[in-house]
Amino acid sequence: MAAPSRTTTFANPPDYTFNSDRLRLTLHSPTKQPIVLVACGSFNPITYHHLRMFEMASDFVRQNTDFEIVGGYLSPVSDEYKKPGLVSAHHRVEMCTLATKQESTWLMVDSWEAFLNYQRTAVVLDHFNYEINTVLGGVYTQDGEHRDVRIMLLAGSDLISTMSEPGVWSHNDLDHILGRYGTFVIERSGSGMDQATDSLARWRNNIYPIPQLIQNDVSSTKVRLFFRRGLSVQYLLPAAVITYIEQNNLYPDDGLAPEKDKGKAKARESGEADAGSESSSVRAIQSTSGTERTILSRHFQ
User: Fold this and answer.
1) The pairing of beta strand 139-140 with beta strand 146-147
2) 234 CB-near residues (< 8 Å, 6+ apart)
3) Strands, E, within the chain: which ranges?
4) Which listed site, 3, 81, 196, 265, has its alpha carbon 20 to 30 Å from 134?
């Protein structure tokens, strides 16, 4: 299917500049097709799992495809998404920026989607296509030969599951996203990935499942709950992001931690907690986390 027209233009938020600081404009291999990975999501907050998704995709692309990744972008959703508990776009963009600066040498954050009204995923991908291939002029081989960059969506298996559900996505949007661009999907245990892709058989050649060799179920929902229960989130998300959240009190402790856990927290402070204290806290999380879990119709968490 033909790519979006190069004459297409997009309205930008005030003071917006497309971030291309880490976009690599020269291909290493002239035989590879250049691609840019785009992950759309709440990032409320961003976690190490979000960053790991890009690294898993990078390994998969290098070992199993004829693509060459020249850049990767996080695109936080707009405040107009109206998801319960969603902190402001300003904070989510800043957290993503801190995470990529601290933890990555190639990932970037694009704020275009975040600071506009709600934008469909298909339009977001068109925006990246316009900025990279029309405004910047694509990339080049080492011999100076021009190449257009293929924009591809990076998502979790939950997203593909919603795409296979009748009535959730329009056929035109599915054809636009999967037909024109394509997607890499990080598989999650028990997600029914095979069944979902069977329902999307028309675009099967543009859907690239990526197995998680080490299962990781860290989610923004669980991290928010840990903050609200006063539990440690160390090593679940970058230190700079933790500091930012605490400084801005983004996910305040709701004071609902069970009394027995509060008592054990005091005991830990005095060095008297037993080895079972962590497991009891985990049970408390497991008993309440379902109330905050949301099925996303468009974005992974």
Assistant:
1) antiparallel
2) 242
3) 33-41, 67-76, 107-109, 139-140, 146-147, 150-156, 183-186, 207-210
4) 81
Q: How many domains does the chain have?
A: 2
Contact 210, 56 (CB under 8 A): yes
pTM value is: 0.83
Is residue 6 domain-resident?
A: no
* Dist CA 94 CA 111 (whole Å): 10
Q: How far apart are CA 134 and CA 131, in angstroms?
A: 6
105 and 189 share a domain?
yes
Kindly indicate the confidence band of residue 199, based on its pLDDT and cuts at 50, 70 and 90. confident
Give the residue among 78, 65, 5 at the shortest CA–CA distance from 35. 65
The predicted model gives 32-43 an average pLDDT of 98
Question: Token pair of 203, please?
Answer: 């675009």
| Owning domain of residue 263 | 220-292
Question: How confident is the model at residue 108, as a pLDDT?
Answer: 99
Phi and psi at 167, nearest 5°, equal 85, -10
- For 120-152, b/e burial (b = at least 16 CB within 10 A) is bbbebbbbbbbbbbbeeeebebeeeeebbbbbb
Comparison of pLDDT for 301 and 34, the residue scoring more: 34
Place of tokens 């860290």: 218
Q: Is the per-residue pLDDT at 95 higher than 90?
A: yes
The first and second tokens of residue 19, run together, are 């971030």
138: alpha, beta or left, given left = phi > 0 and alpha = psi -120 to 50?
left
CATH code where residue 145 lies: 3.40.50.620
